[in-house]
Amino acid sequence: MLITLEGIDGTGKSSAAEMLAKELGFIFTSTPGADYSAIRNAAASNKYSAYHYYLSSCYYISDMAGKFNIVCDRYIHSTIAYNWPYSYSYPEDLYSCFEGLRRPEKSFLLCASDSVRLERMNSRKQKGGIISELDEDFQGQKRAQEVYMKFPELIRIETEGMSLQEVVKKLVHEAKHA
Question: Is residue 131 pLDDT above 70, yes or no?
């Protein structure tokens, strides 16, 4: 089984994905995973190589999901939202465009207001967490959010005003029910 969490930075994806995996007894991973860290800077140096880098990591997760139950922080929707060439229209059905890519059993889009996201990212920064240039590119984040909203298969979860435990409880409920 494959469950994916998508969304822009500061919506609670990573924390919720890790806790959800633990709650369900699944493996937690992200795209790109740790196996990709050695080539990240070179591969993500321009939009076109970044697209292929992230797409490749989705296929890696897809293959893993054939063997293990996985909760994944970012998958194909994030690859499209952040790296798709904007001059092309977005595919209506991602999985018909990417042969062999596993369709998750559930895909969630976590959302929060800009002020809540900024507060969460500042808290992450104060705790020594990783903040990248992309995290602070609010125009890029807004553009990505607009793309996410084009995908009807994403189950939208508003995380604002909810504790992490409440978000995970809702995700568990949604993951276990049709």
Answer: no
What are the tokens at 33?
């995973």
Q: Is the pLDDT of residue 105 over 90?
A: yes
Distance CA 80, CA 164 (A): 26
pLDDT 10s digits, 53-99: 889 899 999 999 989 999 999 999 999 998 887 777 877 788 888 99
Backbone torsions φ then ψ of 160, nearest 5 degrees = -65, 135
SS3 sequence, the chain?
CEEEEECCCCCCHHHHHHHHHHHHCCEEEECCCHHHHHHHHHHCCCHHHHHHHHHHHHHHHHHHHCCCCEEEECCHHHHHHHHCCCCCCCCCCHHHHCCCCCCCCEEEEEECCHHHHHHHHHHHHHCCCCCCCHHHCHHHHHHHHHHHCCCCCCEEEECCCCCHHHHHHHHHHHHHCC
Is 90 exceeded by the pLDDT of residue 113?
A: no
Q: Six-digit token pair at 136?
A: 């602070």
